[in-house]
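Section 3.1: Structural characterization of target chains.
Under the original work plan, the team committed to producing a structural model for every single-chain target entering the pipeline before any wet-lab resources were allocated. The record below documents one such target. The sequence was received from the expression subgroup and is listed exactly as submitted; it comprises 371 residues.
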Amino acid sequence: MRVLAAMSGGVDSAVAAARAVDAGHEVVGVHLALSATPGTLRTGSRGCCSKEDAGDARRAADVLGIPFYVWDFADRFKEDVIDDFVASYAAGETPNPCLRCNEKIKFSALADRAVALGFDAVVTGHYARLEDGVLRRAVDADKDQSYVLAVLTAQQLSRAMFPVGDTPKPAIRAEAAERGLAVANKPDSHDICFIPSGDTRAFLGAKIGVRPGAVVDSDGRELARHDGVHGFTVGQRKGLGLPGPAADGRPRYVTAIDPETGTVRVGSAEDLQVWTIEADRAVWTSGSAPEGPVECVAQVRAHGGTASAVAEAVGAGLVVRLREPLTGVARGQAVVLYRPDEVGDEVIGSGTIGAADAERTVTDSAAAVAE
């Protein structure tokens, strides 16, 4: 096959490209320029898409002996990822920019251009596995990225390749060193790539501005003032601007955010428990929604906890009824559903969380229907 290898300048994408070459594919490397000012987006292991990264990707391509290009996706990245991120926080949501980048940039804009140029697939260094069109967790659980790939449609998955998902990260670094790739020991990027300082609140404040509101307790009593709901997320414990813990000495957490009134509600850890999740923008990796309720395991953060559940397609969305509560469930996050077999690594689908409820609604009859 003729494949396009997306090369970020890191070790994972370099080894993924190398494995594609070993497999006998005709490989072309491409680095995505996602910033209009690429010299500003890396500070050590923070950030990405810098001139340093482009240079590292080019040197890796040279070692592999494959053609290499840089494609400018800065405008598309700003519109579909950065602007979406800012707008979501302004609306009191908690978005995942990596998930949106995969959906809108790497497997939409990039893949569409690749297909138009005659490529059969896009190769990336994501830690996930594809087996007969089925998206699965990576072998390395600590590096697994199936959660942020669960927004991909069956068509997008049909033209994707994840060559490193079957290998633990230490072995990938060792392989890179054996191949003579200079990025073998390059630090992994972490946090949000377009906020190299790591200060998300300051970044959002500069974009959104001051939008004052109140921090209130579960009874509606005002406890403090704040400069904008963008500085908070459901489940947050620190940085609330409160003089101390609750009267009973227990810590307080953000339990709800109202962007219309600017109100941030805080409460106890028990107040965070959610039993029902409603999501829109449902994506089913098989290509079609299941008929009736299905047993699954639900996950609401990239490396967060999981809970057994019953999920059901409802229109263009889905409803997930949990058998055990999850906490820190925020609007704008993705809920990803995995098949509840012995392995539990197959992705069934995903949706963007629009609402969560503390009422327990799952029943034995729903489970019986699912079976």
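The longest helix spans residues 97-116.
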